[in-house]
Amino acid sequence: MLIVISGPPGSGKTTLAHQVAQAVGCPAICRDEIKEGMAHATPGFVPGPGDPLTMRTLATFFDVLGLFAGRGTTVVAEAAFQDRVWRPGLEPLASQAEIRIVHCEVDPEVAYQRITARSASTPSRSVHEDAYHDKERWVRNHQVFDRIALDVPTLIVDTTDGYHPGLPEIAAFLRR
């Protein structure tokens, strides 16, 4: 099974992905963690739209997911998964693994607070172009987030204050 954890920045995807992976008993592959690791080997890297490191990260992310799916390994895949960018990478994996999507939704103000706090306290976040400096632009981008739309079982989780539905219900959805 390929468990896709998706949502806009600051929606709690990474935290939920690691909790789901622990509950299911499988690895979590997080796109931002891959990029942060790749940035260590790229001195002086400056993030920007479509920068070379971001493009290599995308390819690496799908290579890793393809390897797990091809070997019959359940895996949690976590990224923003906006439909226009991510669908081409996910669709081929549907022939190798059953895909289930857990989409995180969050109040934009809460997401903004999370991402600014995370950026201030976690130096490795500097490799991401989160555009949190302009709050109005960031909120607009949050509101037009184009979530992944595959014809697969999908669960919406509100992460504004905890998880609704909770982790036991999320795990039950994944076992169906």
From TrEMBL:
Keyword annotations from UniProtKB, A to Z: Kinase, Transferase
Protein name: Putative kinase
UniProt-listed Gene3D superfamilies: P-loop containing nucleotide triphosphate hydrolases
Transmembrane region(s): none
Leader sequence segment: none
InterPro entries hit by this protein: P-loop_NTPase (IPR027417)
SUPFAM superfamilies named in the record: P-loop containing nucleoside triphosphate hydrolases
Pfam families registered for this protein in UniProt: AAA_33
PANTHER family registered for this protein in UniProt: OS07G0160300 PROTEIN
A single GO molecular function term of this UniProt record: kinase activity
Source organism superkingdom: Bacteria
